[in-house]
Amino acid sequence: MSLVVIVGPPGSGKTTVGRALAEALGAPFRDADADIVAVAGKPIADIFVDDGEEHFRALEREAVRRAVAEHDGVLALGGGAVLADSTRKLLADTTVVHLRVDVAEAVRRNEIDKGRPLLAVNPRATLRRLLEERLPLYREVADFEIDTTGRDVAGLAEEIRAKL
Ligand code: S3P
């Protein structure tokens, strides 16, 4: 199997759908955010508070570079990973799936899964802005995109598997 990378905004289901896709493919799953937490030895929210977003982005670029070089299977990236030019260049040679979500559903999912430092204040307005600003970047790297709004995880994993 080769590498399949999942990108998309916070709340688009990258980790959940990525895991289900890996299972459907019988391939290993890896999450770049989890790699960053392991390297830093603390949660992402603490990295933002203690060391700042710039430091987090540097750790993220390195975690993605390492994962793309090492991993064979499904790899989920954090929502902001595509902001880095170097990361977008790396992704040019891999299969990339862009998961979309509408603002209302991203807000709902963020309510359930707290702990995103960028969304601690004003999540709705911030998500609206992030979705809009990053859409061209997700599209630049993606081979195809799927709207996850109102969809169940198993159905999404199956649709992606069929498109690979
Ligand atoms: C971020 C998204 C998060 C995480 C960090 C920054 C972003 O990942 O990497 O909090 O800039 O959108 P998820 O997209 O998995 O929530």
UniProtKB/TrEMBL annotation:
Role, per record: Catalyzes the specific phosphorylation of the 3-hydroxyl group of shikimic acid using ATP as a cosubstrate. Catalyzes the conversion of 3-deoxy-D-arabino-heptulosonate 7-phosphate (DAHP) to dehydroquinate (DHQ).
Gene for this chain: aroB
Record text on subunit structure and interactions: Monomer.
Record-listed substrate binding positions: 33, 57, 79, 134
Sequence similarity: Belongs to the sugar phosphate cyclases superfamily. Dehydroquinate synthase family.
Residues at which ATP binds: 11-16, 116, 151
UniProt name for this protein: Multifunctional fusion protein
Localization annotation: Cytoplasm
Binding site residues for Mg(2+): 15
Organism: Glycomyces endophyticus
